[in-house]
Each structure stands twice: as C-alpha cells, then as structure tokens.
Design brief:
By secondary structure, this protein is of the alpha+beta class. It has helices at 83-86, 99-107; strands at residues 23-25, 42-45, 49-52, 65-68, 72-75. It has one domain (9-111). It binds iron/sulfur cluster (2 copies).
C-alpha cells in the first residue's frame, strides 16, 4: 500500500479512480503510442476503444490504483495514465470546482473539496 499521505488532497483520496469508467481510444495505448497507456491494463470496449481494467464494473476500481480510498492513494502508471484521468482536477486547486472530483468524493462518503483546503497563494 502507499504511504500515508500527504500534502496534496489526491494523495489521501483516490475516489475518482474508483468511481468512473475510464475510456480511451485504442491508439492511446502502447500498442500504437510508445509510452502510452499499458495495453495490458486495459480491456477492449467496442471496435475502437479500450477501458482501464476494473473501471467497467458495478463497483468501479481501476487496476492501476494502489489506494485505501480516503486515506492514501497512488496511481501506479501516473506518467502513462489516460487523457481522461488527466482531465479530472482536484476541486479548487486551480480556482474552480470540478464536478467529477466532487461527485466521486461524495460517492465515497467524503465532502467535496473547498477553496479553504488549499493553502493561500500569493
Ligand atoms: S481529483 Fe478529486 S476525487 Fe480524484 S483523487 Fe483528487 S481529490 Fe480525489
Ligand atoms: S490510470 Fe491511474 S489516474 Fe487513471 S483511473 Fe487508473 S489509477 Fe486513477
């Protein structure tokens, strides 16, 4: 398991990696793109798409996630994660709420992040 986290809220969360189906075009895997998403961690989804294994389940949980949800979390393929993962932002890290972040956290029994969860920048 990952070490207990940490300064960034995502490192003590992981909810979005255990809530959504994570899809991609097959060409974003390392079948077609060197350094792309490891195809071994995906499964086909229709003729042109793939999903991260574990995320197309009744209770989704990405196979690449190493986490105790709400305590400590790490993506084991962080540098090779799909674009859909990169599109989810921790709410208020960049000055705005993120609906997916909020929905995933609430679904896992956590409150949505608030602006005050981030240190003031100045
Ligand atoms: S983006 Fe939001 S839901 Fe996802 S790990 Fe970070 S804080 Fe949790
Ligand atoms: S690839 Fe990484 S960031 Fe994306 S859902 Fe899986 S564990 Fe989360």
């Amino acid at each position: 398991m990952p070490p207990a986290a940490a300064s960034h809220p995502c490192l003590a969360c992981g909810a979005c990696c255990a809530h959504f189906r994570v899809g991609m075009h097959w060409s974003e895997t390392d079948l077609a793109t060197p350094g792309g998403v490891p195809v071994a961690l995906t499964e086909p989804f229709g003729p042109h798409a793939a999903v991260m294994r574990g995320t197309w389940e009744r209770a989704p949980r990405c196979v690449a996630l190493n986490a105790r949800i709400g305590e400590a979390s790490r993506c084991t393929i962080h540098d090779r994660r799909p674009p859909a993962c990169r599109a989810v932002n921790a709410s208020w890290e960049s000055g705005a709420a993120d609906a997916q972040c909020d929905r995933a956290r609430v679904a896992h029994g956590m409150r949505a992040l608030q602006p005050g969860d981030w240190p003031a920048r100045g």
